[in-house]
TrEMBL record:
Domain Peptidase M14: 36-323
This protein's GO CC annotations: extracellular space
Originating organism: Natronococcus jeotgali DSM 18795
Protein's name according to its UniProt entry: Peptidase M14 carboxypeptidase A
Magnesium is among the record's keywords: no
Length: 372
């Protein structure tokens, strides 16, 4: 930007289009090339190769609305059972690339890998929502939601009756939680809970987590670009369960995971954190797993597909992979459990939405309202 900035600058003093570092940003007129990312077909092939050449076990845990396999990989044989879920939202793809890099590293073996996989069992769902990603394989914009057909409808206590068409997998995690608990904590009408989950992708995950006795579930997403009061680009955000029905021990463990990730990586390049401003209801994955008594953490990174495309791909995948690896190592070594859960409160507050081409005076509600 050519701006010389000395010392700390208050947020209100950040010029409209100034941010550190100064990019990259995609011009709004640019065509985004999705071929830089792993296609659904390549994903399944990669996981099959990992299964046949290493101790990692790959299987499909169900089918999407369009009949695609929902991929799942299991590695290690220790306690606890730890889940990494990526790409619930089809248009949030760098987290899947980072998860593949993590799996390939673990599959290649060595002391570091053994130290993790002796101490815990890792369960990875790399791309929970392959239908949402599918348009990108034809270089079209992927979708956040799944592919429930327009003529298929369900009632929903959180969104009203007779909802039809694509649905957000991250809003369908309340299935299986006691309806009286949901009514009490969220004020919903338990009589409109449908028999069938409108997200078969979500239900496949919930079933697998129950089957193996998940202790910890981490959920990996992308968000738009934010700027902190030092005019720095925020690349990483995190949050723990906020629903009042989540047991204290589950919330404490979740806060330890968020705090540990922040403490271990805040000194790394391009890893500037804030606290994600998420909701409280138990239909959201982060809250639902917490209500079930699990450690449950949301991680969000810069890189929403429609905004960033493949710009900054390598840097982002490295940032995410570092966080994924640090959390696993902290769980395996036990260091993570030494963190004071209260340390999560040291995460900086939410930054300001930032879009280089858009001065603050032109930010609308749609820029503020993006949710996990
Ligand atoms: Zn998301």
């Amino acid at each position: 930007m050519g701006l010389a900035v000395s010392g700390r600058v208050a947020a209100q003093d950040c010029q409209d289009d100034f941010i550190k570092p100064g990019g990259p940003f995609v011009p709004e007129t640019a065509t985004i090339n999705y071929n830089a990312f792993t296609s659904n077909e390549e994903l399944y092939e990669t996981l099959e190769k990992l299964d046949s050449r290493s101790g990692l076990e790959y299987e499909s845990i169900g089918e999407t609305w369009q009949g695609r396999d929902i991929p799942y990989v299991r590695a290690g044989d220790g306690d606890p059972d730890v889940f990494y879920i990526t790409q619930q939202h089809g248009d949030e793809q760098h987290v899947t690339e980072a998860a593949l890099r993590l799996l390939q590293g673990l599959a290649s073996g060595g002391r570091r890998s053994d130290e993790i996989l002796d101490e815990l069992t890792l369960h990875v769902v790399p791309r929970l929502n392959p239908d949402g990603w599918a348009p990108a394989d034809d270089n079209e914009t992927p979708t956040r939601a799944n592919a429930r057909p327009e003529d298929v409808c369900h009632d929903g206590p959180y969104f009203g009756s007779d909802q039809c068409g694509p649905v957000d997998p991250n809003r369908q995690h309340y299935f299986g939680i006691d309806s009286a608990t949901l009514a009490d904590a969220d004020g919903i009408d338990p009589d409109v809970i449908p028999d069938e989950n409108p997200s078969p992708e979500t239900q496949a995950l919930l079933d697998k987590a129950d089957e193996v006795g998940a202790d910890i579930i981490t959920d990996w997403h992308h968000q738009f670009t934010y700027r902190n009061e030092d005019c720095e680009m925020i690349n990483a955000s995190t949050l723990w369960p906020l629903n009042e029905a989540a047991p204290d021990e589950a919330v404490a463990l979740s806060r330890q995971i968020s705090a540990y990730a922040y403490q271990q990586t805040k000194g790394y390049g391009h890893t500037t954190w804030d606290r994600y401003p998420g909701g409280t209801t138990a239909n959201i994955a982060r809250n639902a797993h917490g209500v079930r008594g699990r450690g449950s953490v949301l991680f969000e990174f810069r890189g929403q597909a429609s905004q960033l495309g493949n710009a900054s791909n390598g840097r982002l995948v490295t940032v995410i992979n570092n966080v994924m690896t640090e959390v696993l190592e902290g769980l395996a070594s036990g260091d993570l459990y030494d963190v004071d859960p209260a340390d999560a409160d040291s995460l900086p507050p939410r930054g300001d939405y930032f879009w280089k081409e858009l001065p603050r005076s032109e930010w609308g509600p749609e820029h503020e309202a993006y949710r996990e």
